[in-house]
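Researcher: Re-running this chain for the archive, since the previous output was lost when a drive failed. Same request as before.
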Amino acid sequence: MQKILSLGSEIEILKLLHAVLKRGGYEHHFTTDPQEALALLHTHAFDLLTQDLRRPNLDGADLYDVLRQDARLRHTPVLIISALDPFNLPAKYARLIADLYPHHYVTVPFVPRQILSTIQNILLDFDTPLPPIQPGAAFMPQQSMLCHTYS
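Model: Regenerated structure tokens:
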């Protein structure tokens, strides 16, 4: 059974996602604490991390950068589930959006079938690890290694 960890700021959305993923046959864990999520990612083998973008402390962009810099965690696929419009986000989200949109980004409200289909496609197609961030390197948007064309 594939394991999914979800990190979000709204417990109601996490509970709904939990019900959808359990019904879809996934083992699902969730938390609202980014530090707990990092600890879980380091101690358990998750097949996917879902996260929202805006959280206090360690937001979605910051956590994404942490994952990319960690040799063990950079291979974990990420799905963004957010109510935020990916085209109207602050500049700090540019790298994340360039890497993950559109195939690893689902907007809230979502349709359960859409979440399950997106996750299935990510887990079936994900075979390219995230590239490490080079310290001091400037970010230049480019076509993502994570965006796949689904037929």
